[in-house]
Amino acid sequence: MRKSFVAVLISFVAISCKNVQEVAPFGTVPTPQQVEWQKMEYNMFMHFGPNTFTGVEWGSGQEKEELFNPTAMDCSQWTQIAKAAGMKGVIITAKHHDGFCLWPNPVSNHTVAQSPWRDGKGDVLKDLSEACREDGLGFGIYISPWDRNDPHYGTDEYNDVFVKTLEHALGSYGHVFEQWFDRACGEGPNGKQQVYDWPLFNSTVHKMQPDAVIFSDYGPGCRWVGNESGSAGRTCWSTINVNEDFTGPVQSRKDLNEGIRGGDTWAAAETDVSIRPGWFWRESENSKVKSLQHLLKIYYESVGRNSVLLLNVPADTRGLIHEVDSLRLMELRAALDEIFSVDLAAGGKVIADNVRGKSRRFKALNILDGDYDSYWATDDSVTTASFAVELPEARTFNRVQLQEYIPLGQRVSAFSIEAQGEDGTWRTIAKETTIGYKRIVHVPVTTATSIRVNIEESEACPVINGFALYMDSIYTLETTLPIDQ
Prior knowledge:
alpha/beta; eight-stranded parallel beta barrel; 10 helices
């Protein structure tokens, strides 16, 4: 009799769960490729080419091919360092503005094939793509459409030449996770004028590499963060408004930095910044590599603000990552491991004031289970809600991490965080706006028995799939002051 009752109860619960309406996507949502791209969080940019040997940032395009002759180039060294640093991919400047190609591009006479490096038989893209596969990293390509060497530049023929360049680079080296387009066209009013055919360029990428995320100022895959200092907006939407050819009409760097609430295009911000003052290696900058504190600040203001961090670590004239840069990357990795190794919310209990359909499938405890695809959600009619995490005992922290389940869209536009002390008193320790894929909120050093997150404003029912607490005793350059202490 008891077994029969239990079986009926289980059946009733199962039927009830099935009847709970799925959470519908809201507004503009990312593609599966964009979601996987954002999960990478932290990648390496590699500026390398003739500028490495001349010490300039933008080459003239007239540099002799024999200038490029690294003495000990080893792409495996690059990828091993990137992997040890915790990075998930490497993007190489296959062709910068000077037009020099790091692979034997058949539509150019300004490539490694004309250099003395490896007797003209070298191919940086081949070496790097193979090293990335060996070390389990994504392989990405930067190709500038500006070309200060190609004689076709400034004519109707150039766009076709550039398409052939894309086709060869994207079709010869296996999977490419990101195509990086620099929109620079710096010739000025008296220089050559080239009207880039962006719909053609983007369609070529999609044809050759359907899963590649395309970076440019406005997308279509991801957007520029609006600065090169390493800081996404404290408010950071993954959506913007652009026209069909992705040349605008974003009006300001503020729009790029913060995104646009309710925008018509999903193009999350990518934060590109160099570990050195410049993008290409210079011996004079060996003593100017960013400090650990500075890099932690960048990490918090990029990955911690709903952005992907693309940290430039240039190779030197040997074709190796310099020892100073490598050491700093290892210091950063050690610091991040120390900060984020212990989730102080682990073992907690979670209670929410609303659970979608009262279903266990959407229970609040999902935010602690570490499963990206499980989440807490409220009923469609509920756009302001709270959940509280009761800790096993009083714990001390100064970082609160929150995540939205972005496959269903970015929703939260305002939230606050409260902490309950051992005396039972609640106090507000932070007020913020957006969450997105990941938000790491700086709060005062706090000892609490419970934490409450109040979703104060959301475009649709909130969908939260991650919550964690951490204690950072390393980073001291606090830039975010707590509100309402």
